[in-house]
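Technical appendix A lists one of the benchmark inputs used to test multi-chain prediction within the project. The record comprises two sequence entries:
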Amino acid sequence: MTDLTPDAAPGRRHGGSLLTLDARTRRRNRAEARFRAYGIGAILIGLLMLVVLVVTIVSRGTGAYTQTFVTLDVELLENKLDKKGTRDIEAIKKVSTFGYTPLINAAFETAAQKAGIETALKPKDQAAILSKSAAAQLRDYVLADPSRIGQTVSFRFLANSRVDGYLKGRVTRESIANDKSISAEQLDFVDQLIAAGMIRKTFNLDFILGSDASDQRPEAAGMGVSMVGSLFMMLVVLVLALPIGVAASIYLEEFAPKNWLTDVIEVNISNLAAVPSIVFGILGLAVFINYMHLPMSAPLVGGLVLTLMTLPTIIISTRASLKSVPPSIRDAALGVGASKMQAVFHHVLPLAAPGILTGTIIGLAQALGETAPLLLIGMVGFIASNPPDGIAAGLLSPNSAMPAQIYEWAKRADPAFYERAWGGIIILLVFLVTMNTLAVILRRRFERRW
Amino acid sequence: MSFVKLSASALAIAAVSATAATARDQVQVAGSSTVLPYASIVAEAFGENFDFPTPVVESGGSSAGLKRFCEGVGENTIDVANASRKIKDKEIAVCAENGVTDIIEVRIGYDGIVFASDIGGNGFEFTPADWFLALSDKILVDGQLVDNPNSTWADVNAAFPAQPIQAFIPGTKHGTREVFEEKVILAGCEETGAFEAFKAANGDDKKAAEKACIALRTDGVSVDIDGDYTETLARIESNKDGIGVFGLAFYENNTDKLQVATMSGVVPSTESIATGEYPVSRPLYFYVKKAHIGVIPGLKEYAEFFIADEIAGPDGPLAEYGLVSDPELVETQEAVADEKVMGGNS
């Protein structure tokens, strides 16, 4: 090979060999090796971050999936719950949850005696190791069937968050030195109950299926209802954003004349995709709640707001996949006499469908993880406390969403909520990873390349 | 024109569901994040014990809650505003402008504000004057008002360790900030005599002197926390020299990470706040729209339930969580039962 760089001093290689590298080549080779090292370094840093993230989330969050339960025989005393003995449901309803605490106190006293546990604690302080939800659980049980009054029933109650933390190693005798909610004697009592087999830490399905609980009972809080809220919002987004987005992009891509108006629309859609989501929240508050009088905190409004946010993503990805269908397909369809609409709906759209689906799923995943716009339409707070009964209630009755629930837990005082926030993140991540995997699979399976 | 058709039908769907949704059957509450835990405890118990649905409780700060409260009357406005301070005359005026005239004020109890630092660090015994000297923009040195020269707590008070001053205080949107300014900084200002100096410098104007007192230094020593107490706690965990301002209930849930400082020699607790020995406390309120009683099912029941003895009394769950129960609870209960509105005419 001759020297192809005539201007670079022709006699330069004089006396040198093609087989030995000169300084300049070596420098270039070194630069390339360095660049590769940087690349590998960048990937390694990225992977390291991912590993740190996943390890942190999993190690902090898994605790939320197990919970400490106390098994206890409670005598449903007639003289406390139904003084007249009429079994009239209205009369029994008058006994509030506070009326049920003496039953639990008494149950602890007898249980301690039966198990031969000696403790200096008063029954009231013994019962304090239970969750505050125990009385409500008892009341719900009695109201479901008043004829159970008078019987002795075995219940599985949640233990209080401090006791749960003790079994999980978060709470120790040192850490509760200044804690008013639990004493070292109560922990001794817990140890005795564990020995007697009455306290057990098991898998907690209620964390996945249950509803939010107030600040006093972190042990009872669950993601379930907010998950339903997210589900309804995604339903609204899917039902509105998919048809509107696909119709808009088909029109823009296939039918609309190319003039300044469609150019303006195009630029605006691209801009909308970059608008911060909080802006859509303000819009939702102004339009859907203040002007259209839709109910506050309702997943319907959340869904509408997220629809606005997802639309540009869906339109952009749909247009891209419509564009990627080769014109020969259209020409062939038109050539055999199909109308323009037939060409689009019979030939172009089916071929573009995988791309559209992928775009939609990614748009939905984005909407699923969104919290900011929900702040403004009242979906962040103590909201997800009742599972909705039916589809209309699911759309209209107040609910929260998964990311909003996590945010809410993360700011509460009791450290037990912190654990639950991490646990909630695991659920949210599982959803997101599933959706994104689905998008990848769909694309791999159905996508055609020309 | 499928796009037009589709968007039209989408709007139609939304409009139909809007008309279907006019009857709201749960109480809507918003406001102070200090009151939020108490309100959520009450809301939960209310949902359990009554046939009404569980009220919705949002947070966002006292001012934000009262602003939404005053937006008007109707089902798309909130029924109850939680506040960690009294409603201001300005806010009442805004309310009246928007047709919210009959407001029932309910005091639920008292809340203590505590100063806490990392459990492994130094303990402190503060007085309001210490905080004024540590955080104020200008302090009195040898009779002259000068820019705050103190950089460690030892500069403030010789009895303290030489730990750099680093304070995390609630941001201005929190009701807690006002109490901190009034009961700690202003009190310290008067204690150190700086108040008189400010008054003299401002031509005997008391208002201006008060304003000058509560102007905090802006050199990074005092950091405003606009988020919740969890953020303050996180700051202290990462900066062990930090001292934060917390609500008593928050501190009591995190005694394994925080140690509390005494104020004027008194350890904060529900007892010392109830007796008035611990100086930094403030009443907590919620405000009810009278026009919504009878329209929104369960609103009056919720208000009455909130201040019932079994809830807000000294042995109730709220006191257990950290609320200092109001000794005048009986009068509040009567006022709510009579739907007594602010301004006297019921």
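Chain A touches chain B through 61 residues (CB under 8 Å). Chain A has a mean pLDDT of 89. Comparable benchmark entries are summarised in Table A2.
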